[in-house]
Design goal:
The protein has 14 helices and eight strands. Helix 6 packs across helix 10 (300-312). The protein has three domains: 3-63, no CATH class; 70-151, Tyrosine recombinase, N-terminal domain (DNA polymerase, domain 1, Orthogonal Bundle); 184-316 and 329-398, Intergrase catalytic core (hpI Integrase, Chain A, Orthogonal Bundle). It is mainly α. A hairpin with a 2-residue loop joins strand 6 (242-247) and strand 7. It holds the Pfam family Phage_integrase.
């Protein structure tokens, strides 16, 4: 049975301190000298009552040992990271968010001492200096890590828990969906820019992304032998079973996101374009390559030097200061800020507009329907062929001549290449 006992005299408070003793789940005696707010017990009665509450938790199998909560956030993070089962790039992002944001602020704090109010204050400052998506990612990692700490009974609740029970603070309307999507016509115009700028490879890459919904990493990982372009009555297909990523500077092929490997029936025009692309370089291992035929890189340089000009345009330039001449690319109006992933979103919108069965649309996107609908709904060949035929009609409609409509904007202003400046030399003042 729990009891309190005298421990020592607190000279600053001029009071005796007490601790509570209680039976642990293993039958041994445990002790506690502070309450949940970190305040010491100055009466035997207070220590005994607190210890009695811990014994009640033991009997109810809800006991959390206060000593376990003394582990710091940094110590828990070091033990937690090896346990997570996520993709290599996701794990890298987790580690960076911990290293750059969470641990500098909370690394030395004990798990049991984390305060919801203090974390809310820190989060407010975080969101003032960081982009929304990045701040959301940081808080998501912190919340997930502390969810697992609760599971391990390092503390009883999560101080970064989501606020689904009610609104708190100033009212903020739910942000509108600002994802930029393209029409089939706009996707064609972007592809034509790609043809002008980079040739057939980029032209087919843009159209394949728009009409299959595959991510750029998944397109970069498609091998030549994963194309079945001859239609034997079940449609020409592209089989996407892996994606390419550079992990720690090493080219790596890993499973598709969410293990969403799938075979996609292609509209006729796209199968013909892919065949033309394959015929143009018979020795290539990959379907889509870098400009010189190597592996397609999808890092920051590709987005900046290739993708952005396809959407936003670039000014024409002659040979100047040793830089090569380049053709001008006009921006496509109406899709300002479109990302490559926006083409994936665009296909989803096109298929929804075509009223295709939801199970077939989600399967093409690599998603799995949840609940009863996912259990009883199934994709048939007829559904897949109908989608391919519908996408073929969208393509043919996008090729129609457009009269009296501005589709391209003016060329962006020309930016001259930077030159390295040599250090300026000051005239000598000696003898002047």
């Amino acid at each position: 049975m729990a009891y309190g006992e005298k421990r020592g005299y607190d000279k600053r408070a001029r009071k005796w301190r007490y601790r509570g003793r209680y039976k642990l789940p293993n039958g041994k005696w445990g002790s506690v000298s502070k309450d949940d707010q970190g305040q010491p017990f100055y009466t035997e009665r207070a220590a005994e009552q607190y210890a009695h509450g811990l014994e009640v938790d033991v009997r109810r199998k809800q006991f959390i040992n206060p000593r376990d909560g003394r582990i710091t956030v940094a110590e828990w993070a070091a033990a937690w990271l090896p346990s997570i089962d996520v993709g290599p790039l996701t794990e890298k992002e987790y580690r960076l968010r911990l290293k750059n944001q969470i641990l500098p602020e909370w690394g030395g704090v004990a798990i049991g001492d984390l305060s919801p109010t203090a974390i809310a204050t820190w989060e407010k400052g975080l969101r003032q200096r960081l982009a929304k998506n990045y701040a959301d990612g940081v808080m998501s990692v912190f919340r997930t890590m502390l969810d697992d700490a609760v599971t391990e009974k390092l503390r009883g609740d999560n101080p970064v828990a989501t606020r689904k029970s009610g609104r708190r603070g100033r009212y903020k309307p739910k942000p509108k969906d600002e994802k930029v999507i393209a029409t089939p016509r706009q996707a064609l115009l972007i592809a034509r820019n790609a043809l002008e700028m980079r040739g057939l490879n980029e032209y087919v890459l843009v159209l394949t992304s728009a009409y299959t919904g595959l991510r750029i990493g998944e397109l970069a990982g498609v091998h030549r032998d994963q194309l079945a372009l001859k239609d034997t009555g079940e449609g020409a297909r592209l089989h996407s079973v892996q994606q390419s990523q550079y992990i720690d500077g090493v080219f790596t092929e890993i499973a598709n996101k969410y293990d969403s490997g799938r075979g996609l029936i292609l509209p006729r025009f796209l199968a013909e374009l892919l065949q033309e692309l394959m015929d143009s370089r018979p020795g290539s291992e990959w379907v889509f390559t870098a400009p010189k035929g190597g592996r397609l890189l999808r890092g920051g340089d590709w987005y900046k030097d290739t993708w952005q000009p396809l959407v936003s345009g670039r000014a024409p330039r002659g040979v100047v200061r040793g830089a090569k001449a380049r053709v001008g690319i006009r921006p496509v109006l109406g899709v300002e800020g479109l990302t490559p992933h926006g083409l994936r979103h665009s296909q989803k919108v096109w298929l929804d507009e075509g009223n295709h069965p939801r199970v077939a649309v989600e399967a093409r996107m690599g998603h799995v329907l949840q609940g009863v609908e996912g259990t009883y709904s199934h994709v048939t060949l007829a559904m897949e062929l109908a989608i391919a035929e519908y996408l073929q009609r969208l393509w043919e409609d996008s090729l129609r001549v457009v009269v009296d409509r501005r589709e391209f904007g003016p060329y962006p202003p020309l930016q001259m290449p930077r030159q390295k400046r040599s250090p300026s030399r000051l005239p000598s003042l000696i003898g002047s």
